[in-house]
């Protein structure tokens, strides 16, 4: 069967790296392994869709909230080219904002939650058009749907289709900074208010943390090396790099023995300990990414729900440096109730911890997050259809700080931090 799969993505530029979408890559592998011919397209704007010449009867579209307006126009155009096509909308937006997603013109159904089980069922049942009992699938005109299914054993999933994202080109352009990208697990134990994890916990009735086995990850990396050569660097994109000792001890042994490639990973203040850093260093960890977000402890705790002190942040960054590992700090300017004073607090803290690299974004209230609800309740003007939150166009306007002041600090913060 011929299937069109459209992935809506903002284009990469000097401030935004998009790379490959691991989730979409897995879905492409599933469809392809079922014997279907898949036409995969990455759409960056509403004009790109017009390059597609054939629109089959089954079309999948994946989009996050920031690009959903482009998804709407793309879907409408696809339907105009083939009125008999069945359009399935999935991705982050369908999961966090299903009431909006299902009402998008020309959408026939949406997939809520993890899509691997649903997409297989949709393809298998497409000839008969029997979709009602598929978990996570909601049809147009229907309010009820089966609860989405969690993929309990991630080792059952195929490796993502990297060729679809032109993996070699990504390596050629970003190999020294980003490297070869992998995801070890799914889920996060925390519920930061700017993230969708609290929404996912609601969908799945609690925490949904799962890890691939160490053996699976090692095999996946070996498969990558066989196809694309040995990368200079590996990047683990998990929200938090696994830190439970039983899993980590086994993985570190296998990784050091069989892979032995420098890597970077994300972690968190409150997770990092000396015993973990010793293991990371032995494995070849070159860089750890940590969210600071704001230095104001009241905002961090009451608004962001990140329960950590500035002293803990200072000590964590210092400890990582003691092990010779570089640090990268993520920060947001313009969070709800931000002031010029709280921005200066953040700049001063960053001066003190001096990360090897600092990344600053402008806060965007995305649907499905607690902060989105706060912005709605306050009646503030905002736009979540943002292509790049590393650009100087504040998505949120609030009375505690003007956009002019916000942009001033956004443009000058790095100079103020590093001199």
What does it look like?
The chain has 419 residues and is of the alpha/beta class. 38% of the residues lie in helices and 17% in strands. The protein has 15 helices and 16 strands. A six-stranded mixed beta sheet has the order 2-1-3-4-5-6, with helices on both faces. Strands 7-10-11-12-13-14 form a six-stranded parallel beta sheet. Strands 8-9 form a two-stranded antiparallel ribbon. Helix 1 links the parallel strand 1 and strand 2 (37-43). Helix 8 (214-228) runs parallel beside helix 9. It is globular.
Distance between the termini: 59 Å
Compute the average pLDDT: 96
Tally of helical segments: 15
* Strand neighbour order, sheet with most strands: 2-1-3-4-5-6
Which structural category do the helix and sheet elements fall into?
Answer: alpha/beta
Q: Rounded to an integer, what's the Rg over CA atoms?
A: 22 Å
Strand fraction equals 15-25%
Q: Sheet bearing the most strands, described? A: 6 strands, mixed
Specify the overall morphology.
globular
DSSP strand tally: 16
Poorly predicted runs of 5 or more residues: none
The helix fraction, in percent, is 25-40%
């Amino acid at each position: 069967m011929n299937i069109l799969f459209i992935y809506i993505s903002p284009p990469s530029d000097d401030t935004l790296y998009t790379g490959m979408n691991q989730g979409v890559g897995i879905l492409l592998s599933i469809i392809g392994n079922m014997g279907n011919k898949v036409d995969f397209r990455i759409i960056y704007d509403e004009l790109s869709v017009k390059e597609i010449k054939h629109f089959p009867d089954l079309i999948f579209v994946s989009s996050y909230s920031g690009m959903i307006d482009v998804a709407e126009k793309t879907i409408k155009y696809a339907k105009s080219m083939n009125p008999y096509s069945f359009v399935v909308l999935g991705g982050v937006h369908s999961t966090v904002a299903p009431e909006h997603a299902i009402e998008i013109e020309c959408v026939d159904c949406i997939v809520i939650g993890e899509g691997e089980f649903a997409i297989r069922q949709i393809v298998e049942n497409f000839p008969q058009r029997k979709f009602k009992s598929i978990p996570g699938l909601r049809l147009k005109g229907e309010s009820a749907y089966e609860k989405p299914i969690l993929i309990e054993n991630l080792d059952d999933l195929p490796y993502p289709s990297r060729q679809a994202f032109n993996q070699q080109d990504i390596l050629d352009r970003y190999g020294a900074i980003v490297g070869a990208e992998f995801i070890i697990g799914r889920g996060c134990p925390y519920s930061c208010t700017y993230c969708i994890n609290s929404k996912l916990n609601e969908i799945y009735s609690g925490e949904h943390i799962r890890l691939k086995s160490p053996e699976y990850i090692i095999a996946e990396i070996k498969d990558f090396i066989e196809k694309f050569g040995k990368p200079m660097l590996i990047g683990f994109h998990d929200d938090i790099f696994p830190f439970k000792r039983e899993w980590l001890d086994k993985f570190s042994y296998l990784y050091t023995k069989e892979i032995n490639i420098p890597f970077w990973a994300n972690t968190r203040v409150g997770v990092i300990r000396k015993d973990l850093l010793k293991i990371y260093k032995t494995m070849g960890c070159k860089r750890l990414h940590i969210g600071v977000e704001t230095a104001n402890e009241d905002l961090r705790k009451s608004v962001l729900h990140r329960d950590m002190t500035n002293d803990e942040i200072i000590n964590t960054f210092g400890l990582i440096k003691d092990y010779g590992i570089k640090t990268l700090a993520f920060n947001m300017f313009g969070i709800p109730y931000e002031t010029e004073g709280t921005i200066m607090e953040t700049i001063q803290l960053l001066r003190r911890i001096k990360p090897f690299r600092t990344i600053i974004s402008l806060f965007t209230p995305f649907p499905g997050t607690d902060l989105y609800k706060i912005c709605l309740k306050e009646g503030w003007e905002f736009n979540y259809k943002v292509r790049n939150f590393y650009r100087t166009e504040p998505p949120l306007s609030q009375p505690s700080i003007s956009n002019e002041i916000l942009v001033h600090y956004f443009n000058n913060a790095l100079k103020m931090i590093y001199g």
